[in-house]
Amino acid sequence: MFKALVIFLFLLWEARGETNNDLDSRVIGGEDAAEGSAPFIASLRRFIRGQGRVHVCGGSILTQKWILSAGHCTFRVPTHNIFVRVGTNKRTSGGNWYGVHSIVIHENFNANTLKNDISLLKIFSSIEFDTNIQPIKLPTSNIGPGVMCKLTGWGKTDSQAAPENLQVVYNLTTISVEECNNRLDNVSEKFLPIIDKQLCTLNKEGMGSCQGDSGGPLISDGVQVGIVSWGVPCAKGRPDVLTRVYSYMEWINNYISNE
């Protein structure tokens, strides 16, 4: 099962530009997000020959120049082959496109264990903010267990057809690192233990994140607390594992404050 997990995390970003229909993005158990309800959301897209610019990961707007995402979403990806789209809930239309000037992956990112799974993308030109395009708020304090959150992303729901509209899942509950480790005790050892710089949500079966939701934001009270990293495919009632944003605030600010 977790061999499949590693495959879906990295096949989307193969230098050959190949994709697999089984590795599409999904927010399981979601519903259509209201127009303008997630003005911070960004779609990371890669150019695939014969398919155009294909959605591969989520992201969030930090400033007019910087996008936040997961490290595995940008790992070994040339800047000329990744694009950012903002300002639309639609998967295939609308919004504004931006090329990527540079990518910063955390210096301690480990592609095998998915620790420190965080990256920043600096775009060419500047994002123009309006009612449909706004930066996300970042945390000023840590988040504990038992907090209700929501997740947004594009992709398949209960059918094989990817929906056109952005999806949102409500009522995802954060759990402690200790509980997360206990509930993932039969996972391949290279992914464990879950550490304090990671964050877990526990969802009922049929709700949660899946392939392609990677890099997208977990939100609590309008603040981004997590970045989707990995999970047991897909929405099986097991914890989803995210990067804990608060643990990387100094790292993030070191770059975005010097734009």
Automatic annotation (TrEMBL):
It comes from the Eukaryota. It is found in: Secreted. It catalyses: Preferential cleavage: Arg-|-Xaa, Lys-|-Xaa. Residues 27-257 form the Peptidase S1 domain. Residues 1-17 form the signal peptide. GO terms for biological process: protein processing. SMART domains: Tryp_SPc. Keywords: Disulfide bond, Hydrolase, Protease, Secreted, Serine protease, Signal. One of its GO terms (cellular component) is extracellular region. Its main location: secreted. Its EC number is 3.4.21.4. GO terms for molecular function: serine-type endopeptidase activity. Pfam families: Trypsin (PF00089). Belongs to the peptidase S1 family. This is trypsin.
